[in-house]
Request: fold
Amino acid sequence: MRENKSSSSGLLAAGNFIVDHVKLIDYYPAEEMLASILEEHSSNGGGPYNVLMDLARMGAPFSLAAVGLLGRDPAGDWIVEDCRKHGIDTTQLERREGIGTSYTDAFTVASTGRRTFFHHRGANAAFTGAETALETSTARLFYLGYLMLLDTLDESGPDGRSGASHLLERASNAGLTTVADMVSVSRTELLAGARSALPWIDHFILNEIEAGQLSSRVLRAPGGSLDRKATEEAAQALLEAGVRQTVTIHAVEGAVSVSRQGVTWQASLNLPQSCLRGATGAGDAFAAGWILGLHEGLEPALGLKYGVCAAAACLSDPTPSGGLKPLAECLALADEHGIREWE
Reply:
């Protein structure tokens, strides 16, 4: 039976905890060709890790806790120390021998901010969430990410449901409001498992590529602008497939949040090229801003503004969270640069 945790506070974020090795390059080479690395950084990576770090940097006025699986290795040590340094509870970051902490090599083209990822699945592939303390949690929100990049949780059982579906059901039955995100991968065999999780998701956040995959729609022509009508229809389809409260789809142009009560659009910021140093983590920064508004009970329009401003701040740094600032400074970017006009 689902308890009422509306008076609770805090975010419990579970799933992918990754060390990102971000490399800024002069161009993306064809096979067997050479590109130059201009800068390199190591940073947080993965949906829950990025969202937690972004919220910490924005000064979220509620508790933040991490849930995941790490190796007993230097990379795992680095993640634990990084979280603690930013006030994130690491009690439920499990450490395991004989398995490596997950990492990603992210290559960002300096002139465009476009990025390409090479991922080592590592410990995240074995994360089940079975030991997650949901029933005793005092958090209000439970975030799970990324669907389709958590091997064990992505597997479907004899009942046709994925492990993620069952974990989200547990969180929901424990009274937490559930939030989920997914990743852009071409693994169509996992789509049915992801769809099985939808009835246990209160708020679903995803980009236009993922929304198109999951709803079997084309939301953007190759190299073309976002089809706003098709995007709304994709969100509506996911609501009809089971998502309980909102489906929020973000893209370069902006974002839309769709509920059974209505549709809210928000264009992104009109940033000059000089402000764009990398798009790694921008989607997670958007999610962090949206989650901040969600936790605080804000209207969708303001939550979306938080999201696009957080994403804009993220774009100022090659790493996922290095550009995030206190919320007021993120919001000031909208006044400084203005909002782009929809095509």
Observations:
- The longest strand covers residues 37-45.
